[in-house]
Amino acid sequence: MRLSGLDLTILMLYLAAVTAIGLWFRRGQRDIRDYFLGRRESPWWALTLSIVATETSTLTVVSTPALAFAENFQFLQLVLGYVAGRVVVALLFIPQFFRGEFYTAYQLIETRFGARMKSVAAATFLITRALADGVRIAAVALVVQVAFGIGELWSVVIVLGLTLIYTFHGGLKAVIWTDVVQLGIYLGGALAALGLLLGKIPGGWSEASAVAAAHGKFQLFDFTWDWTTKYTFWSGVLGGMFLTMASHGTDQLMVQRLLAARSERDSKRALLASAVLVFAQFALFLLLGVLLFVFYGAPATTPGQSYDAVFPQFIVQEMPAGLRGLMLAAIFAAAMSTTSSTLNALASSSIVDFRRLQGKITEPTRLLSLSRRATLVWGAVLLLLGLVRWGPLLEAGLTIASITYGSLLGLFVLGFLHRGATAGGALTGMFAGLAGMLYVRFATPVAWTWYVLVGTLTTVLVGVAVSWVTRQATAQHKERS
Predict the structure, then answer these.
(1) 407 and 435 in contact (C-beta within 8 Å)?
(2) Per-residue pLDDT reduced to its tens digit, 415-470
């Protein structure tokens, strides 16, 4: 189905608005503090909305309904872990981040383990984030293909090109305030889709809930202890908690927002408030998936099959003109929000954590110019990764991140909680954690929801052991001397 003139008008107005915001916030930028931290002027509530908008990529809007369409509400157990993980980050990580003037999370690692470990941690982030967001770009390309009937390449180019414009010019401040707008758009679109679905199902909510309940769609908790099952209470709460500790405590994508707060107190408020909103949001998108299941007549589903196209098809085929344009704008909003945040985070880590590679440039205006060029380079990288075929999108994105998150989180835990940890022990622990996770991923049936927990424990245990051996060897050498 071709989009109507009204749909295209809504999309164009949205795209023009976010571009204008980016250009507006370019004014007055003098250095990388302006570009990467927004001068630390953003209020905590805006950071809350930006945190949620950033972790709510097109994967959430497209693939979360697909999960409930194919299965049930058990994914929400993982979101309970998201809430618990935020509490740990607020108590353990944020106080550490405000002990100095940091631009990235990995500068904190430098104060504990030295410049080499900072570069290792930053490189881990850059690789992980680029791969994971390649999946997210692929997700929005799927929507653009369905809506406009154009090829995969042009779908990716359109999304990245438009996002690059306002990210390149406006920096983090533009990213944060466009996030605020985009969150309102995609939540409004999701609520509109919910109302439309209920109106299209004969009998409304009563009929929909009865059919869904009969098919077990509202099943939430699974208390069995099974390492191979993705969504149980234990893998959800424990696995989700460690996943969030890694994503919100060690990933520059989220840490950058925590660092941009006016104070440590505002940073904690923003993070904890996001827990309530993100839980409600995932519940909303799962409910959409259940209603889609009922609307399409409870179709037969195959475990492991991707149903990512179900919601985009509903938008294009069933939504009236105007509302269809709003919903497509919402999906664009989710995609552009995360992509812009990723571009700015990748650029900030590249410039700050690897500044020595650029000849120790210190002049503020030259660093600002270099930061913008780094944004363009990472845009090209994401374009290429967005063309890869990843399979079921939501789980592909989370699985990629989970493989490396464990070693990165283990590094921070060693730095925070073990005073005897050495740089050599931490590095060995990271490599052991990554090697262990690759083995678990490709040689065992362990579910991806356990990956971060397993990787973190491996990194910490090996790091503690190697550090102890290193200290003993050093002590014996001193005695002999």
Answers:
(1) no
(2) 888 888 899 999 999 999 989 988 998 899 998 889 999 999 999 999 999 999 98
Cα 451–chain centre separation: 16
- pLDDT of 357 reads 45
Structure-token pair, residue 284:
């909303």
Distance CA 244, CA 229 (A): 19
Report, as an integer, the average pLDDT of 297-311: 67
How far apart CA 65 and CA 409 sit, in angstroms, is: 29
Phi, psi of 276 (to 5 degrees): -65, -45
Contacts of 155 (CB under 8 A, 6+ apart): 140, 141, 142, 144, 145, 148
Burial 281-312 (b: 16+ CB within 10 A, else e): bbbbbbbbbbbbbbbeeeeeeeeeebbbebbb
Topology given in CATH for the domain delimited by 5-392: Sodium/glucose cotransporter (1.20.1730)
Which residue's entry shows tokens 């269809």? 324
pLDDT digits 0-9 by tens, 201-212: 888 899 889 988
Sketch the domain layout of the chain as residue ranges: 5-392
pTM for the complete prediction? 0.85
Distance CA 211, CA 342 (A): 40
* Lookup: tokens for 454: 């397993």
